[in-house]
């Protein structure tokens, strides 16, 4: 398998969360001690020199360790689901009935939820040790409501456009659990690239 393609696809998978140092606007604090939860429908756009993909999705983050990301299909059914619990990632490709579970981040990387909820810290890919930079904007100055998040690594860029963000609402821990069907096929990190290509459909 082409290692460059694998690294690019692994980047596509994890670049959603956030990055390390880079220009940014602080995510919503609104006079509070800190953001506890974030849930929003999001339009996610991915761009690289060779392809562009745009998908309606759902993002939910709770505390500094729980994150859920879903890409919706044509009839608003889950097409792809990802849960991060600390640094452990579970990804389920619904149509292919295939899933991945493991760590994609380097040992000295922060975990996805903590970086996203705090808008600080760093993520570093285990395979390449490449860092991801981020730029967050708010809907209105002082509103504390996120508008967009641009996440960049090299020539790859993912833009989240928050459609209806809800801050500090009660999110049950069960939202961040993923029940994988018993007959699902477990795939390796090296196989991720082939499955991620289905996102373009």
Order of helices and strands: HEEEEEEHEEEEEH
Principal-axis shape equals globular
CATH level-4 homologous superfamily: Lipoprotein localisation LolA/LolB/LppX
Q: Mind telling me the C-alpha Rg?
A: 16 Å
What class, by secondary structure content? Answer: mainly beta
Question: What's the CATH first level?
Answer: Mainly Beta
Give the amount of beta strand, in percent.
35-45%
Helix content: 10-25%
Mean of residue pLDDT values: 75
| Overall tally of domains | 1
**How many strands, which pairing sense, and closed or not: the largest β-sheet?**
11 strands, mixed
Level-2 CATH architecture? Clam
N- to C-terminal distance = 22 Å
CATH topology, what is it called? outer membrane lipoprotein receptor (LolB), chain A
Give unreliable regions as ranges.
Answer: 1-11, 14-33
Main features:
mainly beta, 36% strand, outer membrane lipoprotein receptor (LolB), chain A, 201 residues
Fold and architecture overview:
It is built from three helices and eleven strands, in the order αββββββαβββββα. It has one domain (3-200): Lipoprotein localisation LolA/LolB/LppX (outer membrane lipoprotein receptor (LolB), chain A, Clam). It is globular and about 45 Å long. Strands 1, 2, 3, 4, 5, 6, 7, 8, 9, 10 and 11 form an eleven-stranded mixed beta sheet that branches. Mean pLDDT is 75; it is low at 1-11 and 14-33. The two termini are 22 Å apart. By secondary structure, it is mostly beta strands.
